[in-house]
Amino acid sequence: RAPSGAMPTVTPAVEVAKLDNLSITEYFGGVATGDPRLSAAHVVVTAAGEEAWQTPSFDEYVIITSGEVHLQHAGGETVVKQGSGVFLKSGLRMKWVFPGPCSYVPICMPAFSPDNVNREEEGQEKESKAEAKEGEGPVIFSSVDVVTAPDLTITEFFGHVASKDPVISACVATVRAPCAEAFQAPDFDEYVLVLSGEVHLQQESGTTVVAAGQACFLKAKERVKWVWPCASTYVPICLPAFSPAGCNREEEQGAAKDKATMDRLHALHADVAQSA
Are 29 and 237 in contact (CB under 8 A)? Predict the structure, then answer.
């Protein structure tokens, strides 16, 4: 067995923006955790609107959890709907348009800041004459249900399966009833945003409770058992990307992911490896 390691770090999310039609709650980043490597937030849009043009100096991975967003750029307009992820490369000039209510999780690397988003304030917009080059612009990925257990569904938006990306994985996990997973000691760092319900992380040294509106950071090699006492929704982000082999999971009778679920998960990752 791997050593237990340090206890998970739990921090409260911070509402960093509140407008009439939009709220942004940061779970990781310069305000919530002081982490320059990565920021992650939950954005809720309640009515139609749009943002100013911007040319961020960070890569952005966006999970659309409800509704749709329209992204204007030099190549036209890209519509991204619920159930899809969109990758926005650093240096891409774009404008966010919200045709109606929606919600999404933006993950920025390095972390977002007002200084590196390079926002063009009203009246100061640049006159863009640049033509879109092939391969530039937003890249959309369809999500994949990589875990379909009786009480737990994990939908991957970025990672080895959904986007063929070994650097980062990001999922939405939906727990429908109380259940628990086997102990594991992953090879990756894990950033967790709990959107509803709560998650209990058991270790030999004690149990850490992460409630809705809180974030949790799990350092690589921390041996931990995930327990869900109630229905919940959370977003796990892994650096590098999750893989079954890198999870170092210990088989356990009665775990939420049964043998059939794990066999399918391994097969999904094996198919990706063979097609690479």
Answer: no
CB 74 within 8 A of CB 94: no
H/E run at residue 260 = helix 259-275
Distance, in Å, from the CA atom of 87 to the CA atom of 55, rounded to the nearest integer, reads 14
Beta carbons of 22 and 75 less than 8 angstroms apart: no
Tokens of 125: 């917009």
Model confidence pLDDT, tens digit, residues 27-64: 999 999 999 999 999 999 999 999 999 999 999 999 99
Task: Note whether 24 and 43 are within 8 A (CB).
Answer: yes
Condensed to tens digits (0 to 9), the pLDDT of residues 176-206 reads 999 999 999 999 999 999 999 999 999 999 9
Two structure tokens written together for 248:
């170092």
CA-to-CA separations, 36 to 103, 188, 206, in angstroms, rounded:
24, 18, 29
